[in-house]
Amino acid sequence: MKVGRRSFLSFIIGGAAGTALSPLPWKLTDDLSIWTQMWPWTPVPPDGEISHEGSTCTLCPGGCGIQVRKVDRRAVKIEGTPGHPINDGGICILGLSGLQLLYGPTRVKGPMKQTGGRGSGRWVPVSWEEALEEVAGRLAEIRDQGRPESLAVFSGNRRGTIPAMLTRFLTAYGSPNIVTGASLADSYELAFHRMQGVQASAGLDLDQTDFLLSFGSGVLDGWGSPVRMFRANSALKDGRGRLVQLEPRLSNTAAKADQWISINPGTEAALALGLAHVIVLEKRYRAQFVNEFGGGFDAFRQMVMSGYAPETVAQITGVDAKTIVTLARDFSKASMPAAVCGRGAGDTPGSMNEVFAVHALNALVGAVNSAGGVWAVPEPVEYPWPEPEMDETAARGMQAGRLDGAGQGRYTATPSRPEQFFEAIRDGEGYPLEALFVVEANPCYSQRDPETVKAALAKIPYVVSFSSFLDETARNADLILPNHVYLERYEDVVNPGIFNRPFVGLVQPVVDPQFNTRNVGDVIIELAQGLGEPVGGAFPWDSYEDCLEEAYEEQWDALTGDGFWMDEDFTPAGWPEAFETASGKFEFLPEGLEGGYAPLEIEGASGEYPLVLVPYDSMRVSTGYIGNPPFMTKTVSDTVLKGDALLVEVNPKTAAQLGLPEGSRAVLTTAKDSVEVRVHLYEGLMPGLVAMAKGFGHTAYDKYLAGKGSNVNRLIGPVQDPVSGLDAAWGVRAKLTRA
User: Fold this and answer.
1) Residue 561: partners with Cβ closer than 8 Å, 6 or more residues away
2) Torsions phi, psi of 536, nearest 5?
3) Structure confidence at residue 36 (pLDDT)
4) What Rg value do the Cα atoms of the chain yield, rounded?
5) Is the torsion defined by CA of 697, 699, 704, 707 positive or negative?
6) How many CA atoms are closer than 13 Å to the CA of 142, on its beta-carbon side?
7) Pairing mode, if any, of strands 112-114 and 123-125?
């Protein structure tokens, strides 16, 4: 067989990426002893009785079941739970590293008060009684002054009993300002609301899909449950079907896909509509669905036929017109296809244009609520708590309006807008905040443009962090009330990422608390009761565990026995009952698209910034609230991180034009900031782009993470989506110059 240069490069690059995903030990060739190194904080238990305790992992949205192996009372290993419906005994590298979070030096060992000003690092330990008395006193003073709306909560999670308790606390107190981090899940929920008229999470029926068309989703780069996605890909490769990856970079997902199609970033919606053009033109759509359940199809057809011919879309996307036609035909003739979108691990919302267009593609082929398709998954339970009573102070505060503008006006269906929340505080818009609680979140690192977050925090007189770790946001707080880590506490994980059935995973303590920490649920109950009526009356429980058990009274036996509850008999609503829109049909052109599918413009002028910076996710780097444990950082390739220097990927043609050889030092600049990097030449990236790994550039934690690389969020500002009001930026214009 003759192998040309292009085929050879694809083989080499794809093989390297594929090896990175194999079950071989990571970096086996240069560090065989990685898993046996004696980290200074790692406990060495004596010989003793061996036992196993079950729980649920919370380190990513996947919701995998875990078993913790213990010697006496010490945890020594984390494994996946055999038979668990999500991961069936498998575990990812982050889940495997959980013990380093439990025993590591970045733990906050008890309540701490900052005495030298924000960020000074001068902390003094305080007792829980002293700390809670101080917080309750502050909150009582704010409420007595008739300004309860000036208390806000920023939570990393939106589902589960802890977020529900935080919302309940604010409602009884009198504040509408419960703000949560946003992700692709929020965009999909809004798409279901606008296109199907339902309130639901997105689920993917991976067990039956025979053609998965991914518009940039990191199917094998941390999207959903990594273990579940790996198994699904293996099933596709075993002959059940195909995975086609559409993105500008040869990611691990693209390398392992059956076909990788390189596409200009930001043009995914146009490509989806180009595929729709072919399917409609050749009458390859599911006629029963379109004719009986397709609302606004005539207008949709007119739009795609007039503006999205393959030749036109090829000019926009960089994808050959023949490839567009072939892909549309292959997708439409599959028995059980599904199309999904969202860049990387899906921890940013993205453009609603893209989500709408891709979901309309599912509707064309009848993949909505169908076998192998994309399902609308309802909430598993409704908590049986009565509405909290509000006095006049609370009622007035709740009428003040949210600082982020969510839930009102054009953003009625948007649950939270974190970027606008911090911008409003920074710019002095609306009313001033007096106090902020931060729970299971690190916005000073993970939000786009973290300097805006820090500027906002500087304007809030009192900031309380509930972090288990001394992260960037905790360092900028006045008081830390440390939560138990996930291996020490009770909690619930509700409808984890893209799982296709109503599901609750039970997080259970598998070891005793190592330090003087408390479950944030217990702290909220104690604070509420300390404030008296009406806030205290909304929290009648003696403990968070009592609250959790009451919330899942009917499912409690299953939760404690199996570690999870799942509606095994669930099937999504059939087409006649599936759509609760005004028309009773699936809306191909939902509200907000009256002007058509307009492309989203990213930040920066092309003249000043000739390149486009795109961030990417990696299975070896944690990008959320949890910073990378040392084990994970140790596995990062030296083409990504070499010493403390972060390497950015550049196509060799682009690098040659810039005079930047392999390994050269450079300055990467956007309209937001500049950072020093090194250059890695990568054939798997389109010319004109720069790719930068997410999850580096921490200024907190320990020597294994702090000071390594740069935080890509510093370089990218949020771009507001006109439909959702959420951040839709997928990249930023940039320039790369020799250092």
Assistant:
1) none
2) -60, -35
3) 41
4) 25
5) positive
6) 27
7) antiparallel
Q: C-alpha distances in angstroms, 573 versus 205, 280, 585, 733?
A: 14, 25, 13, 43
HSE, side-chain direction, 13 A CA sphere, residue 8: 5
647 SS3 class? strand
Over the stretch 643-680, which tens digit does the pLDDT of each residue have? 999 999 999 999 999 999 999 999 999 999 999 999 99
Cis omega (within 30 of 0) on the bond before 23?
no
Which residue carries 């550039």 as its tokens? 697
Greatest Cα-to-Cα distance within the chain, rounded to the nearest angstrom = 81
Contact status, residue 128 vs residue 462, Cβ threshold 8 Å: no
What is the Cα–Cα distance from 41 to 33, expressed in whole angstroms?
17
Distance between CA atoms of residues 616 and 251, nearest Å = 8
Distance CA 594, CA 582 (A): 16
Q: Report whether pLDDT(2) > 50.
A: no
Token pair in block for residue 205: 């029926």
The neighbour count for residue 568, using CB atoms within 10 Å, is 8
Q: Closest Cα partner for 555 from 542, 571, 570, 567?
A: 567
Which two tokens mark 551? Answer: 């919330």
Contact 193/199 with Cβ under 8 angstroms? yes
SS3 per residue for 656-675: HHHCCCCCCEEEEECCCCEE
Q: Which amino acid is residue 739, in one-letter code?
A: A
Q: Are the C-beta atoms of residues 152 and 432 closer than 8 Å to each other?
A: no
Taking CA atoms, 68 is separated from 505, 560, 602, 674, in Å, by 16, 16, 45, 43
In the numeric block, which tokens belong to residue 130? 């002293």
Which residues, other chains included, contact 537 with Cβ-Cβ below 8 Å and sequence gap of 6+?
A: 172, 388, 389
Query: Which letter does DSSP use for residue 236 in this model?
Result: I
Q: Are 487 and 509 in contact (CB under 8 A)?
A: yes
Cα of 66 vs its chain's centroid, Å: 21
Residues counted in the chain: 739
Mean pLDDT of all residues in 315-329: 98
Axis crossing angle, helix 352-364 with helix 184-196, rounded to the nearest 10:
50
567 neighbors 500 (Cβ within 8 angstroms): no
What one-character-per-residue DSSP string does 171-227 give?
Answer: HHHT---EEE---HHHHHHHHHHHHH----EEEE-TTT-SEEEEEEE-TTTTSS-HH
Strands 65-71 and 178-180: unpaired
Residue from 5, 363, 432 nearest 191 by CA: 363
Query: What six digits make up the tokens of 103?
Result: 């025993």
- Give the H/E segment covering residue 642: strand 641-642
Class of residue 8 by CB neighbours under 10 A (exposed 0-12, middle 13-18, buried 19+) = exposed
Q: How far apart are CA 523 and CA 544, in angstroms?
A: 9
Query: DSSP H helical segments within 659-715, as ranges?
Result: none
Q: Confidence band (pLDDT; 50, 70, 90) for 596?
A: confident
- Report residue 730 as tokens: 């997928």
Q: How far is CA 244 from CA 137, 241, 259, 498, in A?
A: 57, 10, 5, 18
**pLDDT per residue as tens digits for the range 295-321:** 999 999 999 999 999 999 999 999 999
pLDDT at 328 over 90: yes
Cβ neighbours of residue 579 under 8 Å, at least 6 residues apart? 196, 197, 198, 293, 295, 585, 586
Apex CA 199: angle with CA 506 and CA 544, to 5°? Answer: 30
Q: Which residue has the tokens 């399917």?
A: 279
For residues 91 and 79, the answer to whether their CB atoms sit within 8 Å is yes
User: Looking at this protein, which amino acid is placed at residue 574?
Assistant: G
Q: Is 608 helix (H, G, I), strand (E, B) or coil?
A: coil
CA atoms of 59 and 226, how far apart (whole Å): 12
Neighbours of 426 (CB within 10 A): 18
Q: Amino acid letter at 251?
A: S
The Cα 689–Cα 207 span in angstroms is 36
CA–CA gap between residue 402 and residue 412 (Å, rounded): 11
